Amino acid sequence: MEGFHSRIHRSGQRRADPEVLDHALQLYTYLSEHIAQRRANSGGGDLLSQLVDLKEEGGMTDAEILGLCFLFVLAGLDTVTAALGFSFARLAVDNELRNKITNDYSLIPYFIEEQLRVDPPVPFAPRVITEDVEVAGCPLAKDTDVLVSYGCANRDPQVYEEPERVHLDKRPPHFAFGRGPHRCLGSHLARLELRLILEEWHNRIPEYSLAPDADPRVPWPNGTLGLDAVPLVIG
């Protein structure tokens, strides 16, 4: 748990919230107990049992399984929340855009893709150069560690027309979920969550606006880009 505490602190360069650490410890304990139970009673059909029973390359250690379980539980939690914050912040100030998706829910998937393109919750991702290459006049040697800026790629004016705007009539590819073999495994679930939430919200609350004194900001530095708050006026 001490190692987990240090990773939280380093990832955001801010002191970890004691309440967050308490919840993390509870989750750590819960998962550790279930891993121990599966070790003692192998052969189950659930995913955790299958991870415990793996034999290839010596199988997985408890620490490896625990890390994977943390990923299963937490992956997409902050990113989907951040995407919703950006979505409501945009719709709250753009009545025309909000009315379009409220009157035609078939446009919501298009809105989601474009909103993710313009304001991706994941700002960058680490990658390794696989061969010597030159990008925009900059030579990059094989095996060099780089950070791919999804935000810059998603707003490239050579690829996207009016890259700062959300277009409901277009659905070009984007980098919000990454690209290639390391693309986000949870992208389909994230899209489903975003679509259902936006549909149900606008079915119940079609009219809303940003509070007069609201000033949504993105806390920085942080591993995920998200607004600190989006105060709304309903109706």
UniProtKB/TrEMBL annotation:
Superkingdom of the source species: Bacteria
Keywords for this protein: Heme, Iron, Metal-binding, Monooxygenase, Oxidoreductase
Residues passing through the membrane, by range: none
Pfam families (alphabetical): p450 (PF00067)
GO MF annotations, alphabetized: heme binding; iron ion binding; monooxygenase activity; oxidoreductase activity, acting on paired donors, with incorporation or reduction of molecular oxygen
PANTHER family the record matches: P450, PUTATIVE (EUROFUNG)-RELATED
Family classification: Belongs to the cytochrome P450 family.
Protein name: Cytochrome P450 family protein
